[in-house]
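@channel sequence for tomorrow's demo:
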Amino acid sequence: MSHQKPFVISLKLQTIATQLNELKQELQQAEQDQLSQLAQHKITSLAALGAQLNERRKALGLDIATLELQTGISASTLKRLFKDPEQVKFGSVYAVAAALGVSLCAVV
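structure tokens (generated this afternoon):
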């Protein structure tokens, strides 16, 4: 029996090594998927930011009047924000993004 013990241990180590390599590959794939997803949502212009916020609003089924009530930002300002965020204060853009569940973050 003592002859089999090193063999069994060796097989277990090989199995663990294989599982570890599979986990490493899964992690690498998950990281690549995450980077790809970030690239898809990358904001390339202020107009794109406004469009993305407006798309999110629509996806949530919120009309402008409801968003106005939630944020305290006037409907006219919201419309300007969705067309050209450069025309409104950053605080307003931030408040709308937060209300829509959109995180504004810097990735460097």
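heads up for whoever presents: Residues 46-99 form one domain.
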